[in-house]
Design goal:
This protein has 13 helices and 8 strands. The protein is α/β, with parallel strands linked by helices. The chain has one domain (40-285): Alpha-Beta Barrel (TIM Barrel). An 8-stranded parallel barrel has the order 1-2-3-4-5-6-7-8, surrounded by 7 helices. Strand 1 (60-65), helix 5 (73-93) and strand 2 form a beta-alpha-beta unit. The structure holds dihydroflavine-adenine dinucleotide.
Length: 311
């Protein structure tokens, strides 16, 4: 029922923030097994294999090294090194991929100046290689500072090298979409994966979806290259319809989906000639990412519980 679903979503979102549980939880075999569906592996080599397979199918990718709970400045510097290794590997192997980066892994919750400097180094490296860094969007408390940092990086490195993410669940997002489009910032539009307060976010899914459609139209009408990130066929159909109405050619924007979700739809859109990018997360710190994927779909939780009960 809707109430059970809301309850399990709330509980999972709560657990996703309890990183103290993760050492225990990540050893549970059913959770580890489920993580294999959504996370490409713990190492860069495993993620590279997943991306090579996508490239062979005509799909492109965005790598994401998971680590949102960094403890100190030294750990954030290690994240920068990992992204530089990653950008070098993309260059060497010629896979069709860019990278997605979270400001928390750059140290946003420790020191904003540190996060900006770390993100700057990754974007500078990507720029020198002709690549692109998508700055992921996290919970509502960091929306403004995240957009401020994206704007600084955009002013320094330019449209083809850094972009933002907006979440249609937030009440502010349509206004953000208009402003960022005017500034020619590339946007990934998604629904939003974090539990937010009603003061800042729509509590009803129907409103989140209606907002997604309104924002999608702002993006498609802007003449900037954006990403429409969803597995929701109704959102995808609305996008295709709007693009056809505006006479947009294929390639004026891209669809984006997550590794492990609706691979059939990813291939189908690519076969129809639409650019499709798959978000490929990897690394040891997959716990909060997996919990967000579970919260999106109670069936994923049922899978874990069933396997736990089986022992
Ligand atoms: P919705 O949740 O309505 O799902 C539609 C359908 O998709 C479902 O019926 C099901 O078939 C499938 N599906 C969706 N989630 C599933 C799951 N976990 N397991 C199995 N099936 C599932 N969020 C954020 O806050 N910040 C960010 O930076 C990003 N980045 C991002 C990048 C990309 C490429 C994608 C696709 C998504 C994100 N997200 C994100 C996540 C996003 O906000 C959202 O939580 C998920 O995409 C799920 O929403 P849908 O649009 O798919 O719709």
């Amino acid at each position: 029922s809707a109430i059970a679903e809301q309850w399990s979503r709330g509980a999972l979102m709560f657990l996703s923030r309890r990183t103290g549980l993760k050492d225990w939880a990540t050893r549970l075999p059913p959770l580890k097994k489920l993580s294999r569906r959504f996370v490409a592996g713990e190492t860069l080599d495993e993620a590279m294999d997943a991306v090579k397979a996508l490239t062979a199918q005509g799909l492109s990718a965005s790598f994401d090294h998971l680590n949102e709970a960094v403890k100190d400045a030294a750990e954030t510097r290690e994240e920068v090194r990992e992204y530089r290794r990653l950008l070098a590997r993309i260059d060497q192997t010629g896979v069709r991929a860019n990278v997605s980066l979270k400001l928390t892994q750059c140290g946003l919750l420790l020191d904003e100046a540190l996060a900006l400097e770390n993100a700057r180094q990754v974007v500078a490296d990507a720029t020198s290689r002709g690549s692109f860094v998508r700055i992921d969007m996290e919970h509502g408390a960091v929306t403004q500072v995240t957009l401020d940092i994206v704007r600084k990086l955009h002013a320094e490195f330019g449209e083809p090298h850094v972009g933002a993410v907006l979440q249609s669940c937030l009440r502010r997002t349509e206004a953000d979409a208009r402003a960022l489009c005017d500034e020619r910032v590339r946007i990934r539009l998604c629904k939003g994966a974090y539990l937010e307060r009603e003061a800042i976010a729509y509590p009803d899914k129907a409103d989140v979806d209606a907002s997604f459609v309104r924002c999608m139209k702002v993006l498609l009408d802007s003449g900037v290259y954006h990403g429409i990130a969803t597995h929701d066929e109704r959102m995808i159909d609305a996008t295709l319809e709007h693009a056809a109405r505006r006479g947009l050619p294929r390639g004026a924007f891209e669809f984006q989906m997550l590794h492990g979700i609706r691979a059939d739809l990813q291939r189908q859109l690519a076969d129809q000639g639409h650019p499709v990018r798959v978000y490929v997360p990897y690394g040891r710190h997959w716990y909060p990412y997996l919990m967000r994927r579970m919260a999106e779909r109670p069936a994923n939780l049922a899978f874990v519980l069933k396997n736990l009960a089986r022992g």
